[in-house]
User: What shape does this take?
Amino acid sequence: MSIELIVLDVDGTMTDSQITYTQDGDEIKSFNVKDGLAIVSWLKLGKKVAIITGRRSHIVERRAKELRIEHFYQGCEDKLTKLQELIKVLDISLENVAAIGDDLNDYKMLREVEISFVPSDASNYVDKIATVILTRKGGKGAIREMIEYLIKKEGLEREFLDIWVK
Assistant: This one.
């Protein structure tokens, strides 16, 4: 089975888990540009990306739009249920899904997908069930490492490079 959809958690995977508030109460997050380029490349290969996150943030919504991530869900207490709803709409199975998460609220989802990834600084509990423990930390290239792993596993390296070198 090939991976058609990757599911991204946000805090601790796309970011370094830090949430900073300004004096005015505005939220600040930092995203890794290399992760973003890998996400765009995955989409250009005709694959799908979803963000399923437990928190709500205008910043994350903006990032999802920038990257043209069509499937974007915030405020999800049960990420697995949201994923199950999505795969029905996309007409794929959990065997076609890879996901990344870093903490207990990702546990059920990571346990059920075909390939699960966690950043190197993830909770020890999710480490125990992950298919792949990445060498990179959340917000520091973990998403890029996950996508490059999948590109190699799926035999898509030539197509991946052709996006940018042709």
The first strand starts at residue 5 and ends at 8. The beta strands are 5-8, 20-21, 27-28, 48-52, 71-73, 97-100, 115-118, 132-133. The mean pLDDT is 96.
